[in-house]
Design a protein that fits this description.
The chain is globular. By secondary structure, it is α/β, with parallel strands linked by helices. It has an eight-stranded mixed beta sheet, sandwiched between helices. A four-stranded mixed beta sheet has the order 2-12-9-8. Helix 4 packs across helix 5 (about 90-100). The chain has helices at about 20-25, 40-50, 55-70, 70-75, 90-100, 115-125, 145-150, 170-185, 200-205, 215-230, 290-295, and strands at about 5-10, 30, 80-85, 105-110, 130-135, 155-160, 190-195, 240-245, 250-255, 260-265, 270, 275-285, 300-305, 315-320. The longest helix is centred in the last third of the chain and has 17 residues, at about 215-230. It binds N,N,N-trimethyl-histidine. The site of N,N,N-trimethyl-histidine has 11 residues, from strand 12.
Length: about 325
């Protein structure tokens, strides 16, 4: 028992997603798997390993930006606030933020990977005994359930690091940001990290590392799906592919079939041709100006834009526009 930790689980019925998974796989335009399925225990571990790779610049760059700007965070953000982190992943960034703030009162961590969420929340609760920690296992779309456990009186600071926003299309990103405002309420702040567009070679290397960890991460999604719906994907029959789609300004990850295959999806069959791919992730890369336009259209105003020397990564410091 940890005194200052509460745990909530809103994860949907295990099989609720199954028909969606199957229709996505059978999509006649492009077979796909939603990237939220990456993050089982193994996938979250692999992503942690990715974030330590020399080629994968976003995590380390964002941490460096937060570290360098901690005094400005302390000065500009309210004391006794409630910090709500959307899609937490690793603990490194929130520790820096909590250390930077004056008397943070509450830390609410929302993540879809239950095991990781709990391990991380426990660590924070122990390290910051004066902070009330709430761990919520939920999809970011489940804003209504999340809203029920968030109380209205405290001033909120939303924290959405890691460029997770890049996994959404511009349209969905806007909807998500509008949804966040409902949780954050009036007079609140949002600190959001976004990967900036840069030399294509640098971006493509970050998703094609020399140790092959990203390839493992990508293929692991098939194991997650096998476990979830009882399908029979053999990961050895697929190749990892990641490239920058110039037109759509995003890194796309695919799993390319090495041969013609007929895969059992339990009650269905899936035909996949040699060379055909399953699309597993989009990671949109923005210019600072494009991203600013997006957040303004979602009802925020920019207080500050922080970046690194090379302009690789951006941290936007936003305030909800009250009306
Ligand atoms: C954690 C979703 C931001 O898109 O860069 C890393 C996930 N995928 N390598 C990203 C990821 C491949 C990552 N996000």
């Amino acid at each position: 028992m940890i005194e200052n930790l509460d745990i909530y689980n809103f994860k949907e019925d295990e099989h609720e997603d199954d028909s969606e998974i199957i229709s996505d796989l059978k999509n006649s335009d492009q077979k796909r798997i939603n990237s939220k399925h990456f993050y089982d225990k193994k996938g979250s571990k692999l992503f942690d390993m990715i974030s330590e790779l020399k080629e994968y610049y976003p995590t380390r760059t964002e941490i460096e930006i937060i570290e360098n700007q901690k005094y400005s965070f302390r000065k500009k953000l309210p004391s006794n606030a409630s910090i709500i982190e959307f899609g937490s992943g690793s603990n490194k960034k929130i520790k820096k933020l909590l250390n930077a703030l004056n008397n943070p009162k509450e830390y609410i961590s929302i993540d879809i990977s239950y095991d990781f969420l709990i391990v991380n929340a426990k660590e924070i609760a122990k390290k910051f005994p004066k902070v009330n920690v709430k761990a919520i296992c939920a999809d970011l779309y489940q804003l209504e359930s999340i809203n029920k456990i968030i109380n209205d009186n405290s001033q909120k600071i939303g924290f959405f690091p890691g460029s997770t926003i890049g996994n959404f299309s511009q349209n969905d990103a806007k909807k998500l940001l509008i949804g966040f405002k409902k949780i954050l309420g009036k007079n609140s702040f949002l600190i959001i990290g976004v990967d900036l567009r840069k030399d294509k070679k640098v971006m493509e290397k970050a998703y094609n590392d020399s140790k092959g960890i990203t390839a493992k991460f990508n293929k692991n999604i098939l194991k997650v799906i096998n476990k979830k719906i009882g399908s029979k994907f053999n990961i050895n029959n697929f190749e990892h592919k990641a490239y920058f789609n110039e037109k759509k300004k995003r890194i796309e990850m695919h799993l390319v079939s090495r041969e013609n295959q007929n895969i059992s999806l339990k009650d269905h069959d899936l035909k996949i041709r040699k060379g055909e791919s399953i699309h597993t992730e989009n990671s949109h890369k923005y210019s600072a100006a494009e991203f600013e336009k997006l957040v303004i259209s979602a009802g925020y105003k920019k207080i500050d834009f922080l970046t690194d020397k090379k302009n690789y990564f951006g941290v936007f410091f936003l305030k909800v526009v009250d009306n």
